[in-house]
Design goal:
This is DNA/RNA-binding protein Alba-like domain-containing protein. The protein has 167 residues and is α+β, with helices and mostly antiparallel strands. It is 21% helix and 28% strand.
Length: 167
């Protein structure tokens, strides 16, 4: 493979599993080089401005989409989420490799795909993976009170002694 060079990559698009959304709903594609702060800045600005919903999409091993969705849910009050897979939860990705003297190769891979819908409007609670708006007040109260109100850690000293046997 060291003499081959990648000629092109072809990804087949996946159809959005949320058909009843407005056509102007922002769809954020999370890629390998995406910075979380840039994704959050864009998503939060759209949710604060006029958008009632935002969709995060990712393919492959991209946990950034889940991380961003959880952070947006915490920052936007009353935000519900509904993760979903495509109709086929895999996206076919093909790469074509070329060589000067040999035949070209075509490599096909199946990448897992996730779509996460975040909405200010109530969603269907019967969908699998539905998450209602959470209450994060208890978590923020603990952090405001400080560590003094939490249960203190007890320090346990353990002494190991070896007994000598006189045999």
């Amino acid at each position: 493979m060291e003499n081959y060079s990648k000629a092109r990559t072809v990804e087949q698009p996946c159809v959005c599993p949320f058909p009843d959304l407005a056509p102007d709903t922002p769809e954020i594609h999370v890629k390998d080089g995406s910075k979380i702060r840039n994704l959050l800045r864009y998503a939060l600005s759209r949710m604060e401005a006029k958008a009632r919903a935002v969709i995060f999409t990712a393919a492959g091993r991209r946990l950034k989409a889940i991380t961003c969705a959880e952070i947006v849910k915490r920052r936007v009050k009353g935000c519900t989420s509904s993760p979903s897979s495509c109709t086929a939860p895999w996206r076919r990705c093909g790469s074509r490799w070329s060589h000067r003297r040999l035949d070209s190769l075509t490599v096909s891979r199946n990448l897992p795909v996730i779509w996460i819908l975040l909405s200010k409007d109530p969603l269907d609670s019967n969908q699998p993976g539905y998450q209602a708006p959470g209450r994060y007040d208890a978590l923020s109260l603990c952090s405001q009170r400080g560590a003094s109100t939490l249960a203190p850690r007890q320090r346990v000293a353990v002494r190991v002694t070896r007994e000598r046997s006189d045999t």
